Amino acid sequence: MDATIKISSSDFNEELLKKIKALLNGKSADITISIKTQENSFALNESKEEYITRISKSVQDIEEGKGITFTMQELEAFLNK
């Protein structure tokens, strides 16, 4: 299994490491941590206004029930297909 997890530095904590360890479930694996600093850049090279508009639309979509929710087991089953 290959997985890429992108998180902000504020989400990098001991709890995340515990969840990753639980996901491995005792299997042998190589883990690589890559750090990329950002300097006031917005995703997809968009302006601040475009970024805020995109995030607002995403929040609205979730509030309207247009999101998809996975349990960890469902995610693992999907990844193993």
Question: What would you note in describing this structure?
Answer:
This protein has 81 residues and is mostly helical. The protein has one domain. The protein has three helices and no strands. 0% of the residues are buried.
| Strand element count | 0
Distance between the termini: 11 Å
- Shape from CA axes? extended
Question: On the 0-100 scale, what is the average pLDDT?
Answer: 82
The oligomeric state is: single chain
The total count of helices amounts to 3
User: Percent range for helical residues?
Assistant: 40-55%
Descriptors for this entry?
81 residues, mainly alpha
Question: How are the secondary structure elements laid out?
Answer:
Blueprint: H1 14-24, H2 48-63, H3 72-79
Summed up:
The protein is an all-alpha fold. It is built from 3 helices and no strands.
